[in-house]
Amino acid sequence: MAQYFELHPDNPQPRLLKQAIALLEKGGILAVPTDSSYALVCHLDDKVAADKLRSIRGVDDKHHLTLLCRDLSELANYARVDNKQYRLLKAATPGAYTFILEASKEVPRRVSHPSRKTIGLRVPEHHVLQELLALYGSALLATTLIAKGETEPLNDAHDIRERYEHQIAGVLDSGACAQEPTTVVDLTGDEPELLRQGGGDPALLGL
Fold first, then answer.
1. Has residue 186 got a pLDDT over 90?
2. Who's near 79: CB < 8 A, 6+ residues apart?
3. Cα(148)–Cα(164) distance, rounded to whole angstroms?
4. What sign for the dihedral angle of Cα 82, 86, 89, 91?
5. What does the pLDDT look like over 86-112, one tens digit per residue?
6. Each residue's pLDDT tens digit, 37-73
7. DSSP codes of every residue in 79-142
8. How is domain 3-205 classified at the architecture level of CATH?
C-alpha cells in the first residue's frame, strides 16, 4: 500500500519529506508533483528501482529518463555542458523544460540512452519538489507519469494512489498540479532541436 503524504504547498513539513526520502533509500518509487504534471522518481543508483520505474511507465531503455536537479550547478555534475549550452540552460531554468545532454561519468550507463549515452536533465520550478531535492541531497531519476496506453500525464494525487497503490511506495500531495509534460529540447547537436512542445515556451530558447 502506497503511503500518502499531504504536504503544505508553501511550507512542506520536513518530517513528512524525510519519511518520503526514507522510502526512496529503501528502493521505493514515489509519485511527486512537478511544475508539469506528476512524475515517478527513484534513487539514481538503484538498478532494481530504475527497472521498475521503466516497467510502470511502460518504456524501454531507449526512452530517455530524466534527472531532476536542484539547480544548474548540480545539473553540471551529471552532464557535459559547454558555454553555449549553459547559456540556454540558464535562460530556461528553473522551469518546465527537459534538456537532452551528453551524460557525464556520474550517470550510470544503464540509465543513459544505450547508443547515444545521453540523459534528460531538468531543474523543476515546484516548491515542494525543490524542498524534497534539497533534503535528499542529490538528483532523482524520473519519468513523467503517463499511464500505459494513455497520452496525457496524470495530475491527481488521489487517482494516482488508487491506480498504483501496489506498485509504488508513496504519493506526495501538495494540491493542484499542472497536467502538461515538459518541453523537451535536444542540446547535443550544433543547434538546439525541439523534440516535444510542452509546458515551457520554446521561444525562450529561440525556437
1. yes
2. 99, 101, 102, 103, 104, 107, 119, 121
3. 12
4. negative
5. 999 999 999 999 999 999 999 998 898
6. 999 999 999 999 999 999 999 998 888 899 999 999 9
7. B---HHHHHHHHHH-SSSEEEEEEB-TTS-GGGS-TTT-EEEEE----HHHHHHHHHH-S-EEE
8. Alpha-Beta Complex (3.90)
Query: What residues does each domain of the chain span?
Result: 3-205
* Closest CA relative to residue 72, chosen from 125, 35, 109, 25: 125
Q: Which residues contact 39 (CB under 8 A, 6 or more apart)?
A: 31, 32, 66, 68, 142, 143, 144, 145
The model's pTM is: 0.95
Residue 156, CB half-sphere, CA atoms under 13 Å: how many? Answer: 6
How many Cβ atoms are within 10 Å of 3's Cβ, its own excluded? 18
DSSP 8-class letter at 183: E
Nearest by Cα to 126 from 199, 194, 197: 199
pLDDT, average across residues 118-138: 96
- How far apart are alpha carbons 28 and 19 in whole angstroms? 12
Amino acid sitting at position 88 = L
> In 3-state terms, what secondary structure has residue 71?
coil
Can you give the length of the chain in residues?
A: 207
For the record, the C-alpha cell of 185 comes out as 529540447
